[in-house]
Amino acid sequence: MDIVLITTVIASLFLVIGAAEPLAARLRLPYSVILAAIGILIGSGATFFLRTELTDALNPISEAILGLPIRSNVFLYVFLPTLLFQATLGMNLRRMLDDWVPILVLAVVAVVVATFSIGYALASVSTLPLAVCLLIGAIVSTTDPSAVVSIFRSISAPRRLARIIEGESLLNDAAAIALFGLFMGFVMLGVPDPNLGDALARFPLLIAGGALTGWLAARLAVWIMALFARHELAQISISVALPYLAYIGAEQSIGASGVIAVVVAGLTLNLTGPGRLPPVAWANLREVWDVLAHWAGALIFILAALLIPRLLEEVRIEDFLLIGVVVLAAIAARVVILFGLLPLLALLRVSPPVERPYRVAILWGGLRGAVTLALALAVTESFRVPVEVKRVVGIVATGFTLFTLIVQGTTLRTVIGWLGLDRLSPIDHALSRQVVAVALQTVREDVARTTENYELTHDIVRSEAKRFGERLEDAVKTAEDSAEILDRDRVTLGLIALAGHERDTILSRMREQTISSRMSEQVLSDADRLIEGARSGGRSGYQRATRRSVSYGRTFRAAVVLNNRFGLSATLVRMTADRFELLLSQRLVLRDLGIFIDGRIRRIHGRRVADLLHELLARRTEAVETALEGLRLQYPGYAEELERRFIRRTALRLEEREYTAMREDGLIGAEVFTALMQDLAARRAAAEYRPRLDIALQRVELVRQFPLFADLDERALKRLGRVLQTRYINAGEIMVRRDSAVRSVFFIASGAVELESAGQTWRLGRGEMFGQLTILMQKPRRVEVRAIAPSTLLMLDEDRFRRLLKRSIALQEAVRSSAQKRGIEPEGLVSSAQEAA
């Protein structure tokens, strides 16, 4: 075939891609629906002109279109890795973790349920072998997110809904294609009724092998990209090679799932890339992948749609019955998951609840697309599959895809509107009216100054001022005449605005590189969580999100267990350093929020709301300072290194600003400016490297700060530092329950706890201990100990405590003092402890 003709056809397809998006926006239809319609029209037109006797002038173009090398391998090896990889790079993984249960249920459980539901439903109404029916079920179980997400973004639908659908669509591709590979093997071998136990037993091996391949490939790629820190184009080129090598390596080398390998490689790069690559390089890398994925997604849809007329050429009347069965079984399976399993998991507190309108939107938004057509094409191309099976698989998969695109795709926007997901809530409506009134007042002041500066014609100024004043008056009247906003709602609106400004401040700090690239994604994720917490739970939701941002998570505790029990400290070292830097970044951002409260929120919501937000901000700042002080007490030298690093980054930012100003003022030329910026970039790359934290060395320093151990010599301090275990606790967590057996003494390194016994309470802070009286009295005491701030405790077992008590006069005095405060005779306690020791 003429290469010029093929190039012309492909270039023309890019013109179609460019015109499809504005056409979809004008027709208010999903972008993928327009692409599919255009592809069908092109394919049908090419077939018509090639077979008609009306004219032969268009035969070369028709032959070029129908002769394009459209094979399933092109979709699976060229386009699919691009789409999956870009989707993982664009995901906010930390926010996805908030909804990991519903995402996994929809992506894995729903795919398995749909595959078997469709398979057994088809087997009951047709003469097809069960293996073929299950193969069809796997083919049509994968959903296409592009149509749904594009609509959600165009109408500013809830972010959480878009996240759930994106996560589901990304992961269910992997699950469906893995199942497709299993059942395709049975069909090619001619096994009519596969052993499902053996099939499902191979499933974890496919996933594990793919995951390992993807992780190793991504780690190697990140290591190489970090070596090329000054060569941005080289880094982007390596990222382009990564998904394809991971896919081919998993599929061809070890027989695992290539889709899983690409997904894991993308997730690994998403998590590690921001911390290893310069911020500008990472941003440009993601922009390149956005463009590649846009082209790949559009081309795969158009090229797959070109095949639809060919796949439907041999359709029969009875095939419509099979398509109807697939439609009903697929919807029924999705209903069972969305309205049966998810509410049950929420009731059992295994999963966060998913609101009913969200579930309806997810149900109707389960569109199928190019991946389904590509898998069907793979079946029709196989010479080891019977001809009749090829025909049925192609027709049923294509018919079901067309149903979802034509019926669900064209009505999806209407369904979303019916559910109210495209409308502002009453609170947001009230906020918009308040904001317009305040904004117009500010604009009026600025316009007045502008007219004075430019000495405009008085009559023109007066007429325009009159028009603007009428609009301002209407806006103020609308805001005042609207239904009164409750104080509670005003606080919620103020918190949403405050969290939004915090996010904007973080983005500004990231551009200035004051916040390191390693921490940028996590700080942004915390800000998003604050916004959604305020939206869903108001003041209490915002406070829960703030507590979570400074608390010790399960992953951190797991790292502590690995360090304490197995001596594996690498994870704890990294997470402790991350926590240190995160808290420093939060403190930097929080200091700018007070001005926003006084300058903006006070004008919109009044003094009472502003004062309350100041109070909440003060509490949050105090919590961050407390957590940071605890870390600083544990690792004083490391805190100093991080602060020095922050000062160096700030100085580099100011230095860059000065060079830019000199270049704009003409004080230095382009050559000098380029040389200065290259030198600056090298020093900035060096400043990105974070100093290493040595937790073993720092613990001795921490123990030395306790007044309780002031009389111990250096050797005893080092020995004590080795045997003490660290425990991190969150505010509200109970360490000791009433009537429980206490086997350790706790020393408070940072934070504070509250003891409650017989209606009395005591509060203990840094440098104090608890648990010693229960041990020395040798009987349970009705005492409950609860943390009232994120705290770090050092634990010493009973035997070592008794031996230490015998040697330390300072510790004996501390025991006497604590016993006297609680009305217990101290002398007997200490003497009996010394005798027991």
UniProtKB/TrEMBL annotation:
Keywords, sorted A to Z:
Cell membrane, Ion transport, Membrane, Sodium, Sodium transport, Transmembrane, Transmembrane helix, Transport
Keyword Lipid metabolism in annotation: no
Localisation: Cell membrane
Residues of the Cyclic nucleotide-binding domain: 708-822
Q: How does it sit in the membrane?
A: Multi-pass membrane protein
> What domain of life does the native source organism fall in?
Bacteria
Record InterPro entries: Cation/H_exchanger_CPA1, Cation/H_exchanger_TM, cNMP-bd_dom, cNMP-bd_dom_sf, RmlC-like_jellyroll
- Keyword S-adenosyl-L-methionine among record annotations: no
Gene Ontology biological-process entries: regulation of intracellular pH; sodium ion import across plasma membrane
An annotated Gene Ontology molecular function: sodium:proton antiporter activity
* UniProt-annotated stretches for the region Disordered: 818-837
Report TM segments: 6-24, 31-50, 70-89, 101-122, 128-149, 170-191, 203-229, 241-268, 288-308, 320-348, 360-380, 392-421
Output a single Gene Ontology CC term carried by this record.
plasma membrane
Descriptive protein name: Sodium, potassium, lithium and rubidium/H(+) antiporter
Organism, scientific name? Jannaschia seosinensis
